[in-house]
Design a protein that fits this description.
The protein is an alpha/beta fold. It has helices at 3-27, 47-57, 68-71, 75-82, 96-109, 148-151, 154-170, 189-194, 211-223, 239-247, 251-266, 280-283, 297-309, 319-332, and strands at 62-66, 86-90, 114-118, 229-234, 271-275, 313-314. It is 46% helix and 8% strand.
Length: 340
């Protein structure tokens, strides 16, 4: 084999690699390097992969962070209520490690003055040392060398880029503000009950001994960023959630864990803690839900308004009475009435 042939072969290989990396960086379906160009719109492909781009490439003073319980909120409503500029980054079904990566990235970028973050109770019962699914940590760090995992990714090149281009070609893409938001018609008492099997519980989801370590994944981020205000809220699960726990005799375990969560975060001066589990008007009305936990965009809007108005706030002075009242309510509620 001649040296000339080898040089040509290597040269073509280098050109092909550069063309591949250039194509991915230009189209950038996950928005890692820039916002969409050429009049394109963002296409919802994968939350874990797209969140870093939102954090790094958009202007904001407020970050709205959470699981599927936060997906129904609109950044535009936060803008109006708090007179700010907001991005929303969510990870459906997130574990505490997923939440920690999102929060660390937001704080590291240094743009956010405040973070509104939803910590649903489920997070603190899940595994504390695993991510929900594959987490592209190379997109969350500052090392450009490991970006080769993105620039030379077969799935990105042959699946994500074509999907983004095809979706933009077809048009009618929603605005970024509308992503993850389901229609109000997907929530009703009938739908919520159809998605609930009374008394059946996943034993993996009731591991309260994990709460300490899940809290430890998140608390240092708050402690190390005293100039950022964290509006932490616990979303309102419906009474179907509490019915399941009553049927299994584990209400006391759950309430003890929720109180433990409040105590852990109330230690920090840069935290405002909001507890919506006791929003009785919401949690007793199954018309607000599509299952035991997920509530409508209207409830999401109400939560933001209540946070802005300072309602449902739990403090060091009142949290014991809040949880005592909640215990009395869930233990004396007429659960059978939901099924009549």
């Amino acid at each position: 084999m001649s040296k000339r042939f080898i040089k040509i072969f290597l040269g073509l290989g280098i050109i092909l690699l550069l063309a591949t990396a250039g194509m991915v960086a230009l189209v950038d379906p996950f928005g890692v390097y820039h916002k969409p160009w050429f009049g394109w719109k963002t296409v919802n492909l994968n939350q874990a992969y797209q969140n870093p781009g939102y954090v790094k490439n958009y202007d904001y003073e407020t970050a709205l962070v959470g699981t599927s319980m936060t997906e129904g909120m609109r950044a535009s409503e936060v803008d109006k209520l708090f007179d700010t500029t907001t991005i929303k980054i969510c990870q459906s079904g997130a574990h505490s490690m997923d939440m920690a990566e999102m929060l660390k990235l937001v704080c590291k970028e240094g743009k956010a003055k405040q973070v509104i973050v939803g910590f649903d109770a489920n997070i603190f019962r899940k595994e504390y040392d695993t991510y929900r699914s594959e987490m592209p940590l190379y997109l969350y760090n500052d090392n450009p060398l490991d970006d080769i995992n993105y620039l030379f990714n077969k799935q990105v090149l042959f699946e994500e880029i074509p999907e983004m281009l095809q979706a933009n070609k077809e048009g009618n893409l929603p605005k970024l503000d509308d992503y993850y938001i389901r229609g109000e018609g997907e929530y009703s008492r009938k739908i919520a009950l159809s998605n609930y099997e009374r008394g059946v519980i996943d034993e993996v989801s009731v591991s309260w001994d994990r709460a300490d370590k899940n809290i430890d994944n998140i608390a240092p981020i708050i402690e190390n960023n005293p100039d950022v205000t964290f509006y932490i809220y616990m979303p309102p699960y419906s009474m179907l959630f509490w019915d399941r726990y009553m049927c299994n005799g584990i209400v006391d375990n759950e309430l003890a864990m929720q109180k433990q969560i409040a105590e852990a975060f109330l230690k920090y001066d840069n935290v405002q803690f909001y507890y919506f589990m006791n929003d009785y008007n919401v949690i007793t009305n199954l018309e607000n839900y599509r299952d035991a936990g997920h509530y409508s965009p209207q409830v999401c809007s109400e939560i933001l308004q209540e946070i802005h108005n300072g309602n449902y706030r739990v403090t060091k002075d009142n949290y014991l009475s809040v949880f005592a009242e909640m215990e009395n309510f869930v233990k004396t509620y007429d659960y059978d009435s939901m099924f009549n």
